[in-house]
Amino acid sequence: MKKLVLIGGGYGNMRVLHRLLPNQLPSDISITLIDRNPYHCLKTEYYALAAGTISDHHIRVSFPEHPSLDVQYGEVASVDTKNKQVLFHDREPISYDDAVIGLGCEDKYHNVPGAPEHTYSIQTIDQSREAYQKLNNLGANASVAIVGAGLSGVELASELRESRDDLKIILFDRGELILSSFPKRLSKYVQKWFEEHGVTIINNANITKVEDGIVYNHDEAISADAVVWTAGIQPNKAVRELDAEKDPQGRIVLTPYHNLPGDEHVYVVGDCASLPHAPSAQLAEAQAEQIVQILLKRWNNEELPETMPQFKLKGVLGSLGKKAGFGLVNDRPLIGRVPRLLKSGLLWMYKHHNG
């Protein structure tokens, strides 16, 4: 019996599970899923958990049940590719014949002094719970600084505005216009929404230091009762320490078949993989579809295709509270209520129909 070990229960490995189970998995293969939590977490919704507008239960999805699936829990320390083992901080190693590494990402602090110690994060469900406790225990008219105005920062700021209309919210954006990678019409819409809802945007920001209750922008001190960091990501530490080629962002460089060069038994999915697109849940799922195809062919000793098809990504959707949103769908910019409804519908479908 060969063992496929899925390291991390994120979007990519959940898609692997749902494609192999219940009927696609060969009878001589078993699956072990490793995660720190006893459920899959909807990471795209952590901003709402931190803001206090949804419950913890709302963003948990049960792992599938199957006789060939064994779910194990632990904090992964490293992956020993030479001995084909997953090593842990808190338990005995787990061996594998094939492994799919999907450990996700962590905050990247860009060597800003004090940022790791004095800011809150929404990268894990535990960190999002901590952010929720801090943000929702703030007194009336307190100030919140959000460093980083990408998708996560924008959604957190808007959701927090609806959750706590008394708070002073400051959103630091390093660009001249918020969401500068999106079409200008869309960026202006989001910027105007914040202006109309009393969120202060500081463009061309450069955070040089963070202290307890103080953010330094271009070395100018700005007081804040809480600081949330959403200004960049990097692969999980176990992946950063993996003996493998990496791109400038620290993500693992892979073959066209999504495995390590020179090791066809170790695949990398999602935020840890060097791919020609920005990391996203949608990208992790698209990659997982291809990994399942490759696994099945290799298990059946079938010839691999000469090339793999390009990923067909449908776009990006973001929320501005519960009633407005923005997005790019098939390169078409959308603003207002429609993209918000689309996002809510996709979330419902994922939760109730396994994506």
UniProtKB/TrEMBL annotation:
The alphabetized UniProt keywords are: FAD, Flavoprotein, Oxidoreductase
Q: Which Pfam families match?
A: Pyr_redox_2 (PF07992)
Q: Where is the FAD/NAD(P)-binding domain?
A: 3-283
Which cofactors are named for this entry?
Answer: FAD
EC top class, as a word:
oxidoreductase
Q: Name one GO biological process term.
A: aerobic electron transport chain
Any idea of its EC number? 1.6.-.-
Supply the name of the protein: NADH dehydrogenase
What species is given as this protein's source? Bacillus amyloliquefaciens (strain ATCC 23350 / DSM 7 / BCRC 11601 / CCUG 28519 / NBRC 15535 / NRRL B-14393 / F)
Q: What would be the name of the gene that encodes this protein?
A: yutJ
What SUPFAM superfamilies does its record include? FAD/NAD(P)-binding domain
Q: Which family does it belong to?
A: Belongs to the NADH dehydrogenase family.
Q: Name one GO molecular function term.
A: NAD(P)H dehydrogenase (quinone) activity
